[in-house]
Amino acid sequence: MAVYEQTYKPYKGMLTPERSRFLIIPRHTLRGVFNSKLFTAFYVICFIPILVEAVLIYLHHNVTALAIMNLNARQLIPIDAYFFQTFVYVQGWLAFFVALLVGPPLVSRDLRNNALPLYLCRPFTRTEYVMGKMSVLLILLSWITWVPQLLMFLFQSYLEGFAWFRSNLLMVSAIVIGGIVWILLLALLSQTVSALLKWRIVASGAMLGIVFIPSVFAGIVNLIFQTRWANIISLFALMYNITAGLFGTFDRVGGRILITDYNDNVREVLLMEPPLWCSWAALFIFCAVCLAILHWKVKAYEVVR
Q: Are 187 and 103 in contact, with CB atoms under 8 Å apart?
């Protein structure tokens, strides 16, 4: 409009608080994600293990159901740290595939279409942009990992009583910390791959390679050199050890093998897992590298030579 007419007026509506400004990204992105019926169906399937877990917990406290099925409560899986740890691992695998479907295109689309200047020319920092993109995965993955596991723990506590809740209270921190660390790792990895590779299929393949190729290589090295120290480069092995440490079930003895020497003497060799502090340090270094790459790639403009 012409300036001399002076018919324009400043915006007088409510301003979005700065601390929650980044949530505008997941609000619109999640709407587009669930427009896919295939993804929605897969996301619903991710809740099936939670349903199985709830049924197992309920059967432990339902005498009538056990009598109908001619089962003894002792024959069922015990509800302890190993029980919740197992379902944390199962949900972690499902969370990985959700991140594989949703994560790679989040940043790559903006880079491929030169949309970052449209974000960053507004009162929107690079940190808020990255937090907004990561929060898409953090929200999606939280609802299938630590949030339902925490509800299952409260369900078991309600049926078993306050004494069980008090004696197993440390499992709450294990569920929450383990779940948050895993989904943060997946969010950082997917955003880093998405920022480096602008095509979704290539980024998804790279994400699969980053996770599975070191795991396969670590397995080969462990088999050849009869050790477990190669697990330090496997993300799944790192998270397995860290989660086990949080639940109090970690055992450095990863296995035992019998070796026969030239004199036909048989001796037992213990395969020792890396200490927990090594797993935490390796995970920290991996996350720091991902953050450095995001800081390098996410910028308003790019000089092409």
A: yes
